[in-house]
Design a protein that fits this description.
The chain is of the alpha+beta class. 46% of the residues lie in helices and 16% in strands. The protein has a seven-stranded mixed sheet. Helix 1 packs parallel to helix 5, helix 6 packs antiparallel against helix 8 and helix 8 packs parallel to helix 10. 48% of the residues are buried.
Length: 391
């Protein structure tokens, strides 16, 4: 895999590869990342890559973030997934631009996580003269939250009559509350097919007071003078999903290559590698990964160039989301081909290919890369009026 950049952060991610592969069974068994591994990844700034220095990070470009996540996912998709969740959570929290949030984001090795979906409820409150909110709710898909120090959960703002408060557009107000880990109760719900090591369990809070300066109103008050805050928030989130898929697909190819020249299928006289059917499907898988990856990084770089120039256009957003969705679909195609080529070998727990297969099929379920993206992009390409709020 050719690197897109010469960032030292990618080299740092690569340095974890051997350890992560050796600990893959441990990660699966824990159903979350070992805390020591998560802490070191965070201390090496792989968990806040895109945050500018003023918000605790190294200020890397989105393309570097994508490469780091892809590199970690080649070793284990769950590790790449937790990294992207923390990166996007830290980025989202930086968008609030409050001194309280800025202070904890500057802490070396801080780990953040969270769920954007507004499945909680919050109402205005005061405590000891401090303005804030009392929040309650339960959130699913809390990836990486078991490792985190700060965890956000989206809430709808309610008034004193328990009615939803709406903003100036008539849309329900969505506030993200940032909770301390000790305020959160984790629920053991993460019994799943793939991405088992992400610890994406449900979590809940009950009547937790959150100061106003530890909340994010919609997408926050972004520091517009920094290009990274011009980059689309949903694009940042989707990039992580695409990078995990591409990393898992490349790993599956490497796993297969390691034994294809040695395995002689039952009843055959030639190795898998010598069979024309194998050669054909390996070529198809390689083409799927490389073409998906090329469009993926092309679209990221184009959108980043727009951010640097002052504006990420609708066309940039459109192409970014299309490229990411296509990359995930292409990665799935490749892994499916490899899983079938590997035959009976791929069904055993001892084979990493079965884990890549399970992981990629959970990755495709993320809302950022579902089939509706094609419909939205198709409308834009056809010149039809289209809601682009979530591009």
């Amino acid at each position: 895999m050719l690197a897109q950049t010469a960032s030292p952060l990618v080299a740092v991610a690569e340095s974890y590869g051997e350890e992560i592969r050796a600990r893959a069974d441990e990660i699966e068994a824990l159903r979350r990342l070992p805390q020591d591994l998560a802490d070191r990844l965070a201390a090496d700034q792989l968990y806040n890559i895109c945050n500018p220095a003023d918000f605790g990070g190294p200020g890397a470009a989105p393309g570097v973030y994508a490469e780091v996540v892809e590199t970690l996912a080649r070793a284990d998709a769950s590790v790449g997934w937790c990294a992207f969740i923390s990166v996007t959570s830290a980025f989202s929290m930086a968008g609030a631009n409050t001194e309280a949030i800025r202070a904890f984001l500057r802490e070396r090795g801080v780990i953040t996580a969270g769920v954007f979906a507004p499945t909680g409820r919050a109402r205005a409150a005061h405590r000891d003269g401090i303005a804030g909110y009392l929040a309650s709710g339960r959130w699913a898909w809390g990836s990486g939250s078991r490792n985190a120090r700060w965890i956000s959960g989206g809430c709808l703002l309610m008034d004193d009559d328990d009615k939803i408060v709406k903003d100036e557009r008539g849309v329900p107000r969505n506030l993200a509350m940032i909770f301390r880990a000790e305020d959160v109760q984790f629920l053991d719900t993460w019994d799943v097919m793939g991405l088992q090591g992400t610890g994406s369990t449900d979590f809940e809070v009950s009547e937790v007071f959150v100061p106003r300066d530890r909340t994010i109103d919609r997408f926050g008050r972004r520091a517009a003078d920094d290009p990274i805050f011009r980059f689309p928030a949903f694009g940042m989130l989707a990039i992580g999903v695409g990078a995990v898929a591409l990393g898992a697909a490349r790993a599956a190819m490497e796993d297969f290559d390691a034994f294809a020249g040695k395995k002689v299928p039952q009843g055959a006289s030639r190795t898998l590698a010598e069979k024309p059917a194998t050669q054909k499907d390996v070529a198809k898988a390689e083409a799927a990964i490389r073409s998906g990856r090329a469009f993926f990084y092309e679209a990221i770089e184009a959108a980043w160039a727009g951010a640097l120039a002052g504006e990420v256009t609708t066309e940039h957003r459109r192409d970014l989301r299309l490229a990411i969705t296509h990359a995930v679909a292409s990665a799935k195609t490749a892994v499916d081909l490899i899983h079938e080529l590997a035959g009976g070998t791929s069904v055993y727990r001892s084979s990493p290919i079965q884990r890549r297969f399970r992981d990629i099929h959970v990755t495709t379920q993320h809302m950022m890369v579902n089939q509706s993206i094609y419909e939205t992009v198709g409308r834009l390409l056809l010149g039809l009026d289209t809601n682009i709020d979530q591009l």
